[in-house]
UniProtKB/TrEMBL annotation:
Chief location bin: membrane
Native species: Mycolicibacterium aromaticivorans JS19b1 = JCM 16368
Entry keyword set: Cell membrane, Glycosyltransferase, Membrane, Transferase, Transmembrane, Transmembrane helix
Sequence ranges assigned to domain Putative mannosyltransferase YkcA/B-like C-terminal in this UniProt record: 483-576
One Pfam match: PMT_2
Ranges for domain Glycosyltransferase RgtA/B/C/D-like: 63-218
Annotated protein name in UniProt: Glycosyl transferase
Organismal lineage: Bacteria, Bacillati, Actinomycetota, Actinomycetes, Mycobacteriales
InterPro entries from the UniProt entry: LipidA_mod_glycosyltrf_83, RgtA/B/C-like, YkcA/B-like_C
Recorded topology in the membrane: Multi-pass membrane protein
A GO biological process held by the record: response to iron(III) ion
Cellular component GO terms, alphabetical: plasma membrane
């Protein structure tokens, strides 16, 4: 009966998560058109699907490895190219991630702690944002949660040898979703297994080596495939300056994100590097709600278990979640490269797992005044932090922040004397404290789910919506009927119906027409793809019909790094072809011949 109650509660949690992540999902339209256009291309052309090309003509790839696009591309191929076929897989990833986290924590601290952890993950605003959006973060988070679960399974006395290699495979899948960000969990996974696994040291070393090999194979096969595939028979690797997948992985999407030395990138525009970043104006409402409470719970749990044997599974789990949390938080806080607030979704599983296990330990020791005081302090800090975060949007549910902080203080006082209360009353106080702690993030998550999101940089909360900096410079254009009809004219006679600088620009025209549109210069317009000479050859071969004039951030900021090939191409087209206005957009018919000497 008790077990069925737990499973019933899990079913409710997963159902609520599914509703939160799928309700009115189509309101966001194409969400991030950059990735939606690539999914469309993958649904039309298998080479585009394999390499994650932005268009079915295979001019250039997106600036990530394409694991997430393999899923959405197949979904679009089966169910048609539409917002639901692209966004529903992200929601499914979220529901599975909640279930796997529940299973991971349940093995350590029991079903109620597992349910608490799953609820915290599901109701974190950053999760409610990214599991309803088509950036690769959804698959990344799911892969890392699976890696944590399999690592914890590998610690048992009777664990099968393949649990750790399976963790390596999971991280490899995360790498294929978002490259080196997946590796931030490796120190925690490897160190915890090596320290706490029940197997003899030699066996631990062998299994850890097998996990490393599994990681290298599961992540490296794609890098090898791209490296050996003839460059003339695949799209250019977007985000690199030399058509190199290794440059993309190690530079633009690797160390460049930390150092800020990202050739072709625009750099970090947040200007908030430091310890306060995770609580700041950009990231705070995404992830900060339960961060202090999780840190306190983890430290308190480690203190309680300070004399536990080396193989104690609960301490090992706390070390795993805390290692994940600390390494990722430090990197996010001090990274000087491109770092968007929604990246913080990668912290949510660690916060949820560490908070649930640490809180369960403290609750079991609530007769100790030190544990009761710690629980009380966690509730007060969470309530005050929620008040401050909710105050940032002072016109929205202004009553909620007052209710939260008052309820938190009241519960905190009662928790100090919880041992003197009847058991049912004590449990009720604990439940109210949990509700008070979750009220802020729940409200923000509901507001996030209720708002449509589009563009490359979505945000959480009631003021969210169209993503991107002021002016929406990373959103996609929506061509008028006349322009769309012009692009469709004789499209079957050309490889690309049109070319335009920037992937987001190209995505808008491509999604509107269903035709391949070349993204000149890739995402930022700073990749040397194609070069001016290559573009001229394409025009001479009558492979591109139209050129659409557009500006990009790289143009506006003077292309601080990367190639200026896109600017050269736009100038060459302007000088040699006659322009005309269609629906207020300047276009050039490249099939009409030059108007001046090239």
């Amino acid at each position: 009966m008790i077990r069925s109650k737990h499973y019933g509660a899990l079913a409710v949690l997963l159902a609520v998560t599914a509703v939160l992540y799928m309700w009115n999902l189509g309101a966001s339209g194409w969400a991030n058109p950059f990735y939606s256009a690539a999914a469309q291309a993958g649904a039309q052309n298998w080479t585009a699907w394999l390499f994650g090309s932005s268009d079915a003509g295979n001019a250039i790839t997106v600036d990530k490895t394409p694991a997430a696009l393999w899923v959405t591309g197949l979904s679009a191929r089966v169910f048609g190219v539409n917002p639901w076929s692209i966004l529903v897989p992200q929601a499914v990833f979220g529901v599975i991630a909640v279930a796997v986290l529940y299973a991971a924590v349940r093995r350590i601290s029991g079903p109620w702690a597992g349910l608490f952890a799953g609820a915290v993950l599901a109701l974190t605003p950053a999760a409610a944002l990214m599991f309803r959006f088509n950036n690769p973060d959804a698959l990344l988070v799911l892969s890392l949660v699976v890696a944590a679960y399999t690592t914890l399974r590998a610690l048992d006395d009777d664990a099968a040898w393949w649990w750790m290699p399976l963790a390596g495979v999971a991280v490899g899948v995360g790498f294929l979703a978002k490259m080196m960000q997946a590796f931030l969990v490796l120190p925690a996974l490897g160190a915890v297994f090596l320290f706490a696994a029940a197997a003899p040291l030699r066996a631990r070393l062998v299994r850890l080596t097998a996990a490393v090999v599994a990681l290298l194979v599961s992540a490296g096969w794609y890098l090898l495939l791209v490296a050996v595939w003839p460059a003339t028979m695949r799209p250019y690797i977007g985000g690199s300056q030399h058509n190199s997948i290794l440059e993309l992985a190690l530079g633009y999407n690797g160390l460049g994100r930390i150092t800020g030395e990202e050739t072709g990138g625009l750099g970090n525009m947040n200007s908030d590097v430091g310890w306060a970043r995770l609580f700041g104006a950009e990231m705070g409402t995404h992830i900060a709600w339960l961060l202090p409470a999780a840190a306190i719970a983890i430290v308190a749990g480690l203190v309680i278990l300070r004399r536990a044997p080396r193989t104690d599974i609960t301490r090992a789990a706390l070390l795993l979640w805390s290692g994940w949390l600390v390494v990722t938080a430090v990197v996010f806080s001090f990274a000087n490269g491109i770092l968007h607030p929604y990246y913080t979704v990668a912290l949510a599983p660690a916060i949820a797992g560490g908070l649930a296990i640490g809180t369960a330990l403290l609750w079991r020791h609530r007769t100790d005044i030190r544990a009761a005081t710690t629980l009380s302090g966690m509730v007060v800090i969470t309530g005050v932090l929620a008040y401050l975060l909710l105050q940032r949007d002072s016109q929205w549910l202004s009553w909620l922040r007052v209710v939260v902080v008052v309820a938190a203080i009241g519960c905190a006082l009662l928790l100090l004397v919880v041992v003197r209360l009847p058991r049912r009353v004590g449990v009720a106080v604990g439940m109210v404290a949990v509700v008070a702690a979750l009220a802020g993030p729940v409200a923000f998550s509901l507001a996030t789910a209720a708002a449509p999101h589009s563009g490359a940089i979505p945000s959480v909360g009631p003021s969210s919506g169209r993503g991107g900096p002021p002016g929406g410079m990373f959103d996609a254009p929506r061509p008028g009927a006349a322009l769309a009809e012009s692009l469709r004219q004789d499209a079957d006679q050309f490889t690309w119906a049109a070319a335009v600088v920037g992937s987001s620009n190209a995505a808008g025209y491509q999604l509107a027409t269903g035709l391949p549109v070349m993204a000149v210069g890739g995402f930022n317009g700073t990749d040397p793809a194609p070069t001016l000479e290559q573009f001229q050859a394409y025009v001479a071969q009558r492979r591109i019909h139209w050129f659409i004039r557009a500006d990009m951030p790289g143009f506006m900021f003077g292309n601080r790094s990367g190639s200026d090939a896109a600017q050269q191409i736009q100038r060459w087209v302007s000088a040699n072809f006659t322009s005309r206005e269609v629906d207020g957009i300047t276009v050039y018919d490249l099939s009409s011949g030059f108007t001046a000497a090239a």
